[in-house]
Amino acid sequence: MEAKIIDTGICTVCGACILACPNSHIKFIEGRPKRPKRTLDCVSCNTCYDACYVLRRGLMPDIEASIFSCVAKESIGIYKRILAAKTREQDIEKACQDGGIVTSLLIHALGENTIDGALVAGRDGWQPVASIAETRGEVISSAMTKYGTTPILKELRSAAVDHGLSRICVVGSPCHIQSIRYLQHRNLPLASTVKLTIGLFCRENYDYHCIEKKVAEVGLDIEQIEKFNVADEFNVHTGEKKLSFPITEIKGCVPRHCLTCEDFASELADISVGSDGSPEGWSTVIVRTEQGEKVFSALERSNAMETEAIQDQDYLKEIAARKREKGKQTEAIFRLSEEGLEKREIAARLGITEDRVSHRLDGL
């Protein structure tokens, strides 16, 4: 696994291999899974390798078919309804980004005993940290968008064994959602404790230390920042000021695995949430499964949020379609480059400009 996945840069750092190792030999070190030392336990053991969904992306259509009864699919995946929503609770609104809907869903699901805990990206300053949230306060403290690879699933063993949780929600990017769905498909015992998945919209992720350096170059300490968000630019908010970086300036901060990802809207989640497509201060919500509908409808009935129709669903679908096409194209560029083709040859083979090939390859 180290040679095929981790060392090649296609590891998504979901944390599944750390979770799956029965003897806890795999650790999260320097931003990726590592074995501090080889042990006899690893001889003839394929557990971590078998837990890696990246090598088995071909199974995703079968996994999708097992989750959804509907087979018709759009660029944003299969869904029941799409709407905009925002919290009515002041403490959540104050602490959260956009509409605060992920936080609201978790808090309400905890209160209703639908879940007894959640795996989330907590914070160490602005650096994301895989965390377990069991209380309202812990959920709220994990709010806001953070950038950096986070092995959220590595905490599932601790959540189930050490914390005794049996109804867990996984909140994560498309890679985390695909990974836990794969583990459920394989019937990994610990995966059966996951009863709800909330997926986040993801155009692409960025390396935390790279972003920290970019911010420092313009004279800002990352701890001064109050909010990050990405639309057509990478935006940094400090107080009433906003600093925007062109996406081309931070392309070198994007991990390789993100460049070939085709999933924008966490298509395998029970509920997907993001900001694209909604007004400022609102969240876009895509309810996908029966479980997702049950949980979201319960929050609607509680009157803890308000909702409205999404006026331009085509915008969302366009973003998703662009990401899918970009991911496929970039995968082909990488493959042809590894076969030894020059940039101009790759461009000719794929029918694209040489500048586009250079943009994808030079950002690594």
Short description:
The chain is of the alpha+beta class. The chain folds into three domains: 59-205 and 254-311; 208-247, Roll (Nuclear Transport Factor 2, Chain: A), CATH 3.10.450.750; 321-362.
Keywords, please?
globular, 15 helices, Nuclear Transport Factor 2, Chain: A, single chain, eight-stranded mixed beta sheet, three-stranded antiparallel beta sheet, 364 residues, alpha+beta
Report on this model:
This protein is α+β, with helices and mostly antiparallel strands. It folds into three domains: 59-205 and 254-311; 208-247, Nuclear Transport Factor 2, Chain: A (Roll), CATH 3.10.450.750; 321-362. Helix content is 37%, strand content 19%. The chain has 15 helices and 13 strands. The strands form three sheets. It has an eight-stranded mixed sheet, sandwiched between helices. The chain has a three-stranded antiparallel sheet with strand order 8-9-10, with no helix packed on it. It has a two-stranded antiparallel ribbon with strand order 1-2. A hairpin with an 8-residue loop joins strand 11 (271-274) and strand 12 (283-287).
SSE topology:
Blueprint: H1 2-6, H2 16-20, E1 27-29, E2 32-34, H3 47-50, H4 60-67, E3 81-87, H5 90-95, H6 101-111, E4 117-124, E5 127-133, H7 136-141, H8 156-162, E6 168-172, H9 174-185, E7 194-200, H10 208-217, E8 227-230, E9 233-238, E10 241-246, H11 256-259, E11 271-274, E12 283-287, H12 290-301, E13 305-309, H13 313-338, H14 343-350, H15 354-362
Parallel strand pairs: 4-6, 6-7, 7-11
Antiparallel strand pairs: 1-2, 3-12, 3-13, 4-5, 8-9, 9-10, 11-12
